[in-house]
Amino acid sequence: MNEEKPDWSSDLGDMPPEEFREYAHEAVNWVADFLAEVDDLPVFPSTKPGEIRRKIPAAPPSAPESMDALLNDFRSVIIPGMNHWNHPSFFGYFSVSASGPGIIGELLASALNVNAMVWRSAPAASELEEVATDWLRQLLNLPAAFEGVINDTASSSTMYALAAARERAWPDAHQNGLFGMAPGRVYASQQAHSSIEKGVLAVGLGQRGYRTISTDDEFAMRPDALGAAIVEDLDAGIKPCAIVATLGTTSTAALDPVAEIASIADHYGIWLHIDAAYGGPVAMLPESHSWFNGWERADSIVVNPHKWLFTPIDCSVLYCRRPEILKRAFSIVPEYLQSSEVSESRSLMDFGISLGRRFRALKLWFVIRYFGKDGLIARIRNHLRIASLLGKAIGDEDQWEVMAPVDLGLVTFRSTRGETPEEQNRINHEILNAVNDSGRAFLTHTVLNELVVLRLAIGNIKTTEEHVMKTWILLKDIAEGFSEGSRASRGS
Ligand SMILES: Cc1ncc(COP(=O)(O)O)c(C=O)c1O
Fold it and tell me: What is the 59 CA–ligand 1 centroid distance (Å)?
């Protein structure tokens, strides 16, 4: 009998393996060249809003396109429109790094494409998240009571911490919502990141549920003002829900006095969350321990390896010493996710809103192993050294001033050229725009006491003293040019 074999071959599948191999090699070669030569690229592109979009068809293609066409457009359309965060002269916001081992971890995680909702959905990813966050905990010298989970961003981590704080302050709210409850309050310094207020909104406490506390001359939270605010609120029948202290604020990298704040939190039994999204990795350095004294008494802490720990975006670790409360705030297990291991393993979906979770632990694990504790410490210590050198150089220069202590990797400063504060502000904005337009470095600004202040954040793994000092010379040259220009126009 001549039985015909069914033909199950199909051209409806994925890219053929050989084609993948060829183009993946091409892409990886491109990445290797990019990492080797990024220094030669302009940090900020000379593109205008809308320019990139106009180069891309408004509608998707109907017919397949070749990988050659895709990679060509990546090189010719996308790359010229990039602000290169992975450039050693990117000093804006907080500078970050996608390091080699982190990029490789990211590539492998995307190929595996696991979704670490529960242990059964991704056993190794679930367990590695436990291991990698515990390794980081040890590097940060935090007690074993802290359990870590990885979220996308500090904004999510902080929101989850506030949800746990709310769960503790109003256990009934889990059932009934906040309707009919006495108003509550979350406290953070005037310099705290906007993600804290967003988190307060997200957990239903409303803008009135957020109270900012004044800061001292160094932009750190004043514990006396915090204590007074709590007493005032208690007298008014408002329930304190959480205090958020920051180690490394966004504007100036100020360090709130966590030991004193922890004592206040203890005294009133208020949840203490620490936003160490930026500053956290500095806790690895033995010489910097004193800044972190007291953070081990917090209920929750957020640290972002994607800021200053050489891990590609996104990777934010939320540590919680009361994981059972965090879980209580979020744990709902639908039938299709029930399995026998639920009781003996962690289900990452229980620690936040998102069910689906990327395998972020892989890149963090690679980064920690590749550089080792000593390598990580040496790199961060070098960033602190360079920041301190720049702070001194600026402090020694006429017509420039440093605006806040240079404790971490951020230097905040301004030119004092100009007769009035308004004129000075305009000049500092012009200096900033001129530096960024040059493509040779990228900085951002903040406003302190109504003065426009330039921020230069050192944190990229490739940044050297030379990058920073060349940028300082560029800043001085630009400012000098403005002075000469205005002298010339006044003379004419
Ligand atoms: C101190 C601080 N906390 C929180 C955040 C928010 O971080 P993310 O972008 O991970 O939400 C930032 C962002 O720069 C920050 O500087």
Answer: 35
DSSP per residue, 186-226:
EEEETTS-HHHHHHHHHTT--GGGEEEE-B-TTS-B-HHHH
pLDDT of res. 490: 46
Q: Can you give the pLDDT at residue 492?
A: 39
- Residues 283-316 have pLDDT tens digits of 999 999 999 999 999 999 999 999 999 999 999 9
**Cα 338 to ligand 1 centroid, rounded to whole Å:** 35
CATH number of 114-359: 3.40.640.10
Give the residue, out of 96, 162, 195, with the most ligand 1 atoms within 8 A of its beta carbon, to mutate for a pocket test.
195
Q: Sign of the C-alpha dihedral, residues 102, 105, 111, 112?
A: negative
Over residues 211-236, the mean pLDDT reads 98
The tens digit of pLDDT for each residue in 28-70 reads: 999 999 999 999 999 999 889 999 999 999 999 999 999 999 9
Q: Which residues contact 201 (CB under 8 A, 6 or more apart)?
A: 207, 210
Average pLDDT, the chain: 94
Residues with CB under 6 A from ligand 1: 93-94, 153-155, 193, 195, 246, 248-250, 275, 277-278, 304, 316
With a pLDDT cut of 90, the percent of the chain lying above it is: 86
| Residue among 275, 301, 306, 317 whose CB has most ligand 1 atoms within 8 A, to mutate | 275
The answer to whether 409 touches 16, Cβ cutoff 8 Å, is no
- The arrangement of secondary structure in 15-44+83-98+373-492, i.e. its CATH architecture, is Alpha-Beta Complex (3.90)
Instruction: Give the Cα-Cα-Cα angle 321, 186, 351 (nearest 5 degrees).
Output: 35
Query: What is the rounded average pLDDT of the residues 450-478?
Result: 98
pLDDT of residue 4: 73
Ligand 1: centre distance to CA 277 (Å): 6
Collapsing DSSP to helix, strand or coil, 387 comes out as helix
Q: What is the residue extent of each domain of the chain?
A: 15-44+83-98+373-492, 114-359
Query: Which tokens belong to 328?
Result: 């209580």
